[in-house]
Amino acid sequence: MIWKFLNEYRVWYSLYVIMSAFYFLMFYLYRLPLSYFANSLVLNLTFLILITIWQYIRFRRKLLILHNFVYVEELRSLTAPSEKSYQELITKLKDKEGEELLAAKTKTEELQNLIKMWSHQMKVPLSALSLMAQTNKLEGNKVEQQLIRLQNYLDNLLTYMKFSQNKDDFRFEDLSVSSLMRQLIKKYRVSFLAKDLSVTIQGEWQLKTDRKWLSFALSQVLDNAIKYSKNNGTIAINIEDKRITLSDQGIGILDEDLPRIFEEGFTGYNGHQHQKATGLGLYMTKQVLENLNLAIKINSQVDKGTDVIIFKK
Predict the structure, then answer these.
(1) Which CATH number describes the domain made up of 172-312?
(2) Cα–Cα distance between 278 and 110 in angstroms, integer?
(3) Phi/psi at 299 (nearest 5 deg)?
(4) Residue 284 and residue 84: Cα distance in Å, rounded?
(5) What does the pLDDT average to over 20-49?
(6) Distance between CA 75 and CA 65 in Å, rounded?
(7) Cystine design at 244: which of 83, 205, 223, 310 (Cβ 3.0–4.6 Å)?
(8) What is an annotated GO biological process for this record, any one (predicted)?
(9) Segment 121-136, tens digit of pLDDT
(10) How would you label 146-182 residue by residue, b for 16+ Cβ within 10 Å and e otherwise?
(11) Among 310, 228, 208, 237, which Cα is nearest to 271's?
(12) Model-level pTM?
């Protein structure tokens, strides 16, 4: 502790020694009585020692407070201007740390709730597969349909994890949007057949983008169209230069839900009513498209259908 004190005030003590040396030199050169200098030096040293003891006690108390304090209020006894500035700085740092801890805790709780919700949803296709196995009714189309649902849930979860950690792996290339949509339609063919849905696709758009992430975004839109379409309905895909429009004849979206459909975790009336939504599909779709320099817009009328438009910014 003493060495810390001397180290902090070493400039002042060094200055005192230098000044004393100068005064001694002046007395010596002008042949002044050195006894006067000695008496003055003793008096100054006495004051210096007393001030040093007082400063050391304050210094020691300050270090103990700084070392052991938990709350900023415990620093109120430190009243020097510089100490007040340090208190303000510590307060800001503690506030920021508290905000970061709260944000981290909230994010952890959200992730836990998300995983619980996803686990619950994944039980549905797993239960269906288990029932098929137990009753020896493993029909190919129905099994494939449940496997597609499982794959979509896992893809959504992994995508969300990547975005929540601010990671991406975009690789841009020239591709045919029409060809990509046809691949997705082929992937979901079992889901189309299960609801007797017909699909039309026309037009072309040569786009430089990331194949995997655009495929993810389009699959979310197509999956929603299938999910909320009525049996024997039609899904129309119109591709133009710098624009894709996917229209269905499904149950539609309430007007009051439309402004919030891209919010994280928002499911709306349809999601609650049909218990098919996690509230992250469209949120992640919008995030992915923004990273691809694309935008998305949705128009919808209840019981008439929904139009999803993806276009170049």
Answers:
(1) 3.30.565.10
(2) 12
(3) -115, 140
(4) 46
(5) 89
(6) 7
(7) 310
(8) cellular response to phosphate starvation
(9) 777 788 888 888 888 8
(10) bebbeebbeebbebbeebeeeeeeeeeeebebbebbe
(11) 228
(12) 0.61
